What we know:
Elements: H1 2-33, H2 39-48, H3 50-78, H4 83-94, H5 96-103, H6 105-115, H7 117-120, H8 124-151, H9 153-163, H10 168-190, H11 199-202, H12 204-220
Amino acid sequence: METSKITARIAGAVYLIVVLTGIYSLGYIPSKLFVLNNAQTNFNNIIEHEDLFRLGIVAGVICYVAFLVLPIVLYKLFHKINKSYGIAMVALSTVSVPFSLFNLMYKINILTLIKNTDKLNIELDSLQSQILLQLNYYNNGIQFVSIFWGLWLFPFGYLVFKSGFLPKILGIFLMVGCFGYLIKFVGSFLLYDSQLTFLKYVSLPATIGEIGICLWLLIAGVKISKK
């Protein structure tokens, strides 16, 4: 029982790293620096706030490395409940990590373009367009990898729901969140921009479930009945 409590709190701490660095790199940085399809503004913001842009890349690396460790710790906590779902949880989450890390190369490419503008003899308009293109490639990669960010939540949520030592409601939020990610992915490709408003809310269950289970593991740990 004591080992499970320690494992739960380790999982919560690693999850907190994933959540905080994920919010910073995927939420805060884009909101401060990037404007959709505006090459000049994006270029100017990156030039003026290059340190912030670089910190976003570092935060992304930390996030994905922590996300590689997280399911392994969770598997140790849940494997006795259902080994098959535990393996599925680990497989679906870890497969996203190399894709996510490789996707950061598009941001690194932007720094390379900026630092080597004179050597490459690139005109300003062309440079801004290439940077916008790299950002679009990056965003496409995020959309693709979000499939796995969603899929792993279903076996994870199922294990939380069946565990008996964690709140079932959090497991439900995680499982519903899986479908929210998938709906958002499909909708972003099939719908026009004017129709995408509702997609901002479909990932809300995943957000509630992930932040909720992170804090629960970190603060409350697990409750195991004495036999």
